[in-house]
Amino acid sequence: MNVVMTDIEIIKAQTTKIHDVDFEHLSFGKTFTDHMLTCDFKDGKWEAPKIVPYQPIVLDPSAKIFHYGQSVFEGMKAYKDVDDNVWLFRPLDNFKRLNISSKRLAIPELPEIFFMEGLKALLQLDRDWIPKKDGSSLYVRPFILASGNGFHASPADEYKFVIACSPSGAYFSGKVKVLIEEKYSRAANGGVGYAKAGGNYAGQFYPTQLAVDKGYDQVIWTDDNTHEYIEEAGAMNIFFRINDTLITGPTSDRILDGITRKSIIDIANDEGFPVEVRKITVKEVVEASKNGSLLEMFGAGTAAVISPIATFGYKDTDYDLPELDHSYGSVLKKRIMDIQTNKIEDKFGWRVKV
Ligand SMILES: Cc1ncc(COP(=O)(O)O)c(C=O)c1O
Predict the structure, then answer these.
(1) Strands 236-242 and 230-233, how do they pair?
(2) Which of 29, 51, 267, 39 is nearest to 171 (CA)?
(3) In angstroms, rounded to a whole number, what is the distance separating the alpha carbons of residues 237 and 260?
């Protein structure tokens, strides 16, 4: 798309909220920075993005987002290193995935320059909000919603692209207990599972609540057809370590192409861990747990990076994972976080300076 970027219009907030924030006790996604980026699609084109004070979005009750859920989003983070430089991790991959999601939801493609330059300008302006403490970062949420009006069930003629940011503290998931799902599905072949479509997550809430009611933290999604293959862990990709081999399922219509997942595969290969990208069955995991060869199981995603699973439940039985002193999960997590925060060399070229 041939779009030229002029200077981004910036309307600065009159006051800052930063002094009201307790940066030592941040809960995830509850505090927002002073500014946001907005960009409107009207008359068949995306207009130049603007940065404005963080504020509500006013929509007509007939806006299609409310009725047909035509919306997509991304999740990424900005990091500050010890010298106060600001970094993003593989941001172009988030941009590309946003457009892949948009295409599936019949949302017009966003120009790369609006995303990348808009994001960088917003982060420059709100850079004081990026926490520096170990494990802390600024969570960045780009999203697009159908703002066009009308009850007709068809794609909207107007959209809003917005980037909002939220400082977040170190993420400790604790000992996660998950339940392998036997009835509900997150995604189906030909569906929207590979897209970060808002409705995908709404559809997860009810089965997840049922699992929480039974004492679990999260659901492990299985394939919609047979429920025999393991696909994702909540809103994360999933990895298993059986003996010395790290295994994760291949991406598909039903499995999101996670940026953390593909980074883990590259780092594990670089560390010399044997890696297999292949389908994995519930049966194989249960048997590996019974014979002691299942050593690790973890979720992988931007928010937690790696979230180790302590126990999984399947057909009324709970299976505990061993506690390891030197887990693959901890090695991989440290290496990714050290790359993200400019502590070590980035031989993969993933870090982008803001
Ligand atoms: C369904 C789903 N799977 C996996 C992931 C992990 O993706 P990433 O590593 O890009 O955050 C996410 C989060 O974005 C997700 O929503």
Answers:
(1) antiparallel
(2) 29
(3) 8
Say whether pTM exceeds 0.90: yes
Predicted confidence (pLDDT) at residue 315 exceeds the cutoff of 90:
yes
Which residues partner with 167 through β-bridges?
Answer: 138
Longest dimension (CA), the chain: 63
Residue 318 pLDDT? 98
Q: Please enumerate in sequence order all residues whose Cβ is within 8 A of that of 157, keeping only pairs 6 or more positions apart, or say none.
A: 148
What is the rounded distance in angstroms from the CA atom of residue 264 to the CA atom of residue 275?
10
Q: What pLDDT is stored for residue 220 in this prediction?
A: 98
Tell me if 150 sits within 8 A of 67, measured CB to CB: no
Pocket test for ligand 1, best of 237, 333, 350 (most atoms within 8 A of CB): 237
Is 141:166 a contact under the CB 8 Å cutoff? yes
Measured at the CA of 32, the angle between CA 124 and CA 131, to 5 degrees, comes to 55
User: Ligand 1 centroid vs 259 CA: distance in angstroms?
Assistant: 7
Q: What is the rounded average pLDDT of the residues 144-161?
A: 98
Q: Which residues of 49-65 are buried (b: 16+ CB within 10 A; e: fewer)?
A: bbbeeeeeeebeeebbb
Kind and range of the H or E element at 352?
A: strand 351-353
- Whether the Cβ atoms of residue 131 and residue 23 lie closer than 8 Å to each other: yes
The whole-angstrom separation of Cα 328 and Cα 267 is 11
Structure tokens at 304: 């937690």
Mutate to test the pocket of ligand 1, among 260, 263, 337 (most ligand atoms within 8 A of CB): 260
CB 207 within 8 A of CB 181: yes
**Which residue owns the Cα nearest ligand 1 atom 7?**
258
Please answer whether residues 142 and 119 qualify as being in contact, where contact means their C-beta atoms are separated by less than 8 angstroms: yes
- In contact, 136 and 78? CB cutoff 8 Å: no
Query: What is the number of the ligand 1 atom nearest to the C-alpha of 263?
Result: 9
H-helix or E-strand spanning residue 121: helix 112-125
Q: How would residue 134 be classed by pLDDT, with cut points 50, 70 and 90?
A: confident
Count other Cβ atoms within 10 Å, centred on residue 75: 17
With CA atoms as reference, report the closest residue to 145 among 41, 50, 71: 71
